[in-house]
């Protein structure tokens, strides 16, 4: 085992809480984007292709609407238990059994916090951009996540699917930062620097 491996192992031993991003880390957003496509009157494939363009440009996903020449949708799809990736809830349950604190944190609308809590997930706290009034990757967002965990940042892991919005700012806040290679953003950002710890799944 090299020095880098020993250092990472030591950090993992310090961890007491694991915080997960929501969209495309725990939740497969395919159904939600399909609903939104119908709401704005464009084929789902067209919306997905336009979203890919926005991702490649490194732009906020909301730039997809002007790219398509449509108004932003008024409908906000709900988060349902069936939307979770197959390994997501079992991972939360396994972490709970192992004695870890668990948090959820993401750029989500106001309704998301209540929806997630209503699902009975084994989580201690939910942090959303709507609730904070600040979006990732702002340092204030990640400072609030650490505060919600109630621990030193070094004892908190953050798992997310974006290098720019999750991995780099979480590490900047002092957390142990994990890049989950899942979903469109992750695959577009795999070559970006700043993601030392990479997971292919949660299982």
Write the layout of secondary structure elements.
Elements: H1 3-14, E1 17-20, H2 30-40, H3 44-57, H4 64-68, H5 88-97, E2 101-106, H6 110-118, E3 125-128, H7 129-132, H8 139-149, E4 156-160, H9 163-172, E5 176-180, H10 183-188, E6 197-199
Parallel strand pairs: 1-2, 1-4, 2-3, 4-5, 5-6
Describe, in plain words, how this protein is organized in 3D.
- This protein is an alpha/beta fold and 203 residues long.
- The protein folds into two domains: 3-27 and 79-199, Rossmann fold; 30-68.
- It contains ten helices and six strands; from the N terminus they run αβααααβαβααβαβαβ.
- The chain has a six-stranded parallel beta sheet, sandwiched between helices.
- Helix 2 crosses helix 3.
- The longest helix has 14 residues, at 44-57.
- The chain is globular, with a radius of gyration of 17 Å.
- The relative contact order is 0.17.
- Residues 1-7 have low confidence and may be disordered.
């Amino acid at each position: 085992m090299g020095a880098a491996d020993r250092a990472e192992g030591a950090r993992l031993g310090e961890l007491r809480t694991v915080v997960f991003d929501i969209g495309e880390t725990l939740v497969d957003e395919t159904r939600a984007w399909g609903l939104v496509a119908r709401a704005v009157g464009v084929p789902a494939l067209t919306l997905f292709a336009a979203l890919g363009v926005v991702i490649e440009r490194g732009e906020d996903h909301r730039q997809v609407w002007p790219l398509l020449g449509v108004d932003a949708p008024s409908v906000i799809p709900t988060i349902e238990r069936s939307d979770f990736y197959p390994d997501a809830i079992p991972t939360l349950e396994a972490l709970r059994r192992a004695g870890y604190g668990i948090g959820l944190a993401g750029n989500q609308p106001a309704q998301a916090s209540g929806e997630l809590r209503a699902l009975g997930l084994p989580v201690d706290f939910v942090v959303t951009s709507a609730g904070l009034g600040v979006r990732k990757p702002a340092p204030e967002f990640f400072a609030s996540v650490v505060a919600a965990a109630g621990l030193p940042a070094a004892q908190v892991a953050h798992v997310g699917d974006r290098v720019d919005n999750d991995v780099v700012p979480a590490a900047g806040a002092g957390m142990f930062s994990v890049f989950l290679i899942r979903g469109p953003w992750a695959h577009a950002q795999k070559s970006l620097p700043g993601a030392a710890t990479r997971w292919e799944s949660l299982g």
